Amino acid sequence: MVEVKKIKSHEERDLAFEIRRRVFVIEQAVDATEEYDEDDEKCTHFIAYLEGNPAGTARWRFKDKGIIKLERFAVERQYRGKGIGAALVKAVLEDLPVAEKVMMHAQLHAIPFYEKQGFITYGPEFEEAGIRHFAMKQP
């Protein structure tokens, strides 16, 4: 069973950061200086557990003018395909205050997943941290 919690302790945050390190820094070779940023202090973070094991994480933050950006969705390799990503998206969306726009930057391989969650692409393809992305938003 998947359980998603809003992070409230340093211990949970450390677990989430470790998931991000393994997924982004090790698996995808993103420079750690790009992965961890000053926004980490301003974001609302989540951690997902599968049968009690930390399995995934995500965060959201305010940008400007009523825009909320969803970020840092990461699921450990061994837990992919088990509904963790969908549970994270659902929990994050349920937590959001009213916003004019909800958006994200999605890696190309993840676009079909986010489309199933109700997001659409917009704008041109771009590169972020050496990985191809599209901006996505709720219609």
Question: Main traits of this protein?
Answer:
39% strand; seven-stranded mixed β-sheet; alpha+beta; Aminopeptidase; 4 helices; single chain; 139 residues
The structural domain count equals 1
Form type: globular
| Global structural class | alpha+beta
Number of helices: 4
Please name the fourth-level CATH homologous superfamily. Gcn5-related N-acetyltransferase (GNAT)
Order of helices and strands: EHHEEEHEHEE
Corresponding CATH architecture:
3-Layer(aba) Sandwich
Distance between the termini: 30 Å
CATH T-level fold name = Aminopeptidase
Which CATH class? Alpha Beta
What is the secondary structure topology, with strand pairs?
Blueprint lengths: L1 E5 L3 H18 L4 H4 L8 E7 L2 E10 L4 E9 L8 H12 L5 E7 L3 H6 L3 E9 L2 E7 L2
Parallel strand pairs: 4-5
Antiparallel strand pairs: 1-2, 2-3, 3-4, 5-7, 6-7
Describe the protein's architecture and organization.
By secondary structure, this protein is of the alpha+beta class. It has one domain (2-101): 3-Layer(aba) Sandwich (Aminopeptidase), CATH 3.40.630.30. The protein is 29% helix and 39% strand. It has four helices and seven strands; from the N terminus they run βααβββαβαββ. The chain has helices at 10-27, 32-35, 84-95, 111-116; strands spanning 2-6, 44-50, 53-62, 67-75, 101-107, 120-128, 131-137. It has a seven-stranded mixed beta sheet, with helices on both faces.
